[in-house]
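Lab notebook, bench 4. Still working through the backlog of constructs that have no structural model yet. Next entry is a single chain of 138 residues. Request: give me the C-alpha cells for it.
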Amino acid sequence: MPSSVVVDTFTWVEYLIGSQAGIKAKKFIDEGRSLTPSIVVAELRKWYLREIEAGRRSGREMQGHFAFIELATQIIPLDTSLALKAGELDFLMKKRIKGWPLADSIVYATAKSRAAQVISGDPHFEGLEDVIFIGNKE
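Model written out:
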C-alpha cells in the first residue's frame, strides 16, 4: 500500500454512496493516510447541493460527511506553489487527454508534490502513472 493517497471527487462520491468503487477505496481512506485537495472539497459541496436539491440527500447528511472527511483525511490547500505545478501539468495533460479538467490537474499535482498516488475511477486518470484506478475498466 502506498505511503499516502490523494482522494479525488469521483472517489469520495463513490465512497459516500457505498458503490463497488467506493468499497475498493474504503481500505485506502480508512488507513488514515489520505489527502484531499481543497478543490475536491469544493466539487463535493457542489455535488451535495445538487443531491439535496433533487431530494436524494439532506443537509444534515452533508454536514456529517464533511465532518468525517476532515477527520479521515488531510485537506491540502491550493497554494501558489501547487497552483503553478497544476497549471504546468494542465497545459501538458490537455495535449494528451481530451476533456482533461483543471481540477484533475490540481489533484494530480497534489499527488506528485506529496510523492503520493491518486486513487480514482475517473476515466481521465485511467492508465496514468501513480494512479490506483478503482473504476470499471472497459
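Notes after review: The chain has a mean pLDDT of 95. The domain at 5-133 is CATH 3.40.50.1010 (Rossmann fold). Flag for follow-up if needed.
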